[in-house]
Specification:
Order of helices and strands: EEEHEEHH
CATH superfamily of the largest domain: K homology (KH) domain
Radius of gyration: 19 Å
Shape: elongated
Length: about 130
């Protein structure tokens, strides 16, 4: 992945042929033209859980049209970091009762969540790029 600085507070990740743009809100000096990086981080938690729930349902031919995940975050005001992230999988009334616990277990398999629970080591370096 390559990250570029694209004017103002816009930062873009170039990843596998995709452009993932971020910006800061106006109050943070940006133009609010894209999600902030932390918002993308939070979205990755919910969407990762969502793909596991979707796969679980698809394997059992359970429609997902009326399923949604509501994510909420409680912040620690002193650390200014999330203290907890909650995912509420909202199921329709006709969702099979026998699969309710299993769909929660499917969401728990999310790789983003597992990574947060077992954080990798971060190595940050700086180097001088050689001209072409």
């Amino acid at each position: 992945m390559e990250v570029t600085f694209d004017g103002g507070k816009v930062i873009t990740a170039h990843l596998n042929g995709h452009l993932i743009r971020t910006d800061q809100p106006v109050r943070g000096g940006g133009g609010n033209t894209a999600p902030a990086p932390f918002d993308l981080f939070l979205a990755s938690v919910g969407t990762c859980a969502g793909i596991y729930v979707k796969s679980f349902c698809d394997q059992r031919e359970i429609p997902t049209d009326n399923i949604k995940i509501i994510q909420s975050v409680a912040f620690d005001p002193e650390k200014r970091l999330p203290a907890s992230i909650s995912l509420d999988i909202q199921l329709p009334a006709d969702f099979p009762e026998k699969y309710k616990a299993a769909v929660i277990n499917a969401a728990e398999l999310c790789l983003v969540k597992k990574t947060i629970n077992n954080p990798p080591e971060f190595v940050v370096t700086a180097s001088v790029a050689t001209p072409y």
